[in-house]
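Worked example

This section walks through a single chain of length 350. The input is the sequence exactly as stored; nothing has been trimmed or padded.
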Amino acid sequence: MVADIVQFLKSTNRVVITTHTRPDGDAIGSQLALGLFLEAMGKDVWMINSDPVPYNMEWLPEAHRIRTYDHSLELVEAIASADAVLIADTNALHRLGTPGNQLKGSGGKKILIDHHTDPEDWFDMSHRRETASSTGELVYELIAGWDLGGLSPAVAQALYVAIMTDTGSFRFSNVSPTLHRMTADLLERAETNAAWMHSMVYDRKSPESMKLLAAVLSTHQLHFDGVVGTMVVTRQMLEDSGAPVEETDGFVNMLLGIEGVRVAMLLTETAKGTKISFRSKEDWEVHKWAQSMGGGGHRNASGAFYTEPLEATLQHILASAPDFLNVDPPDDGSTLSEEDADYLAMLSGG
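Given that input, the structure is written out below as tokens.
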């Protein structure tokens, strides 16, 4: 399918590239790399998202070129006149946010580039592989199928960040020898070093974020004999710390550092419900669990948004865990252990 997509893109003039709401490093890096490469190939490229570039990705070359959809006539016309709409790092309409329906309704071919499970069926073409480490890996394959000579330092930096962030800095099980050879090529082309790029993404925390981290860590709790770990981020914590919610990125992974924990969840309270970040190790899959709550993602990294308050969401998660994990419900037949009931009461101030 790479050859078919490349052949089609060569025939296009205007290309729109988009990604999911609250974009992460893989989303922004993949989108930016595609956009800069296609522009170098002579295409009229528009990069349009529902949400802005996160602060720790703003340093990427040409990141300011990514537009936040604002219903302006300029962006509406760009989407309407596109020959191709490339959707990167997500495969569901609702994950595209505000411009989603217009992007789907564009007359241009919809091309999916993604590594998540269970894609929707409205795409005309796709380059997807669930076993890929990242969407960035798939974008590299597309570029390699066209002309690696067009892989500039800016494109290389964007792709390196995409892959680095979605592999947990190359520590997840989806990292392969082939991927390391790919990233070696990117580093040779990037005209900078891995330590600097890692620092720009992960070492730019505000003093406020440290205050928030301390509050969040104090809520950590283990469940099901220590196999499952949870933490919560309340609106009050965000207000008290002064840190933006984006600075919670990476918090959930800290739970997986606890010996014995195989599944970790970070629940973030919002005005309209609760955002859940699922992470897991080895063959402890969480994507079906996330899908049951209206979300989705990878087998070991997924997310969902549940339109219930924080305590109700956590109660639902703990009660449903035996349906999706190899864990046993409480011996007395209740949905929650006594310890978990006390934990919920503590969170609600009871």
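What to look for: The CA atoms of residues 172 and 281 lie 8 Å apart.
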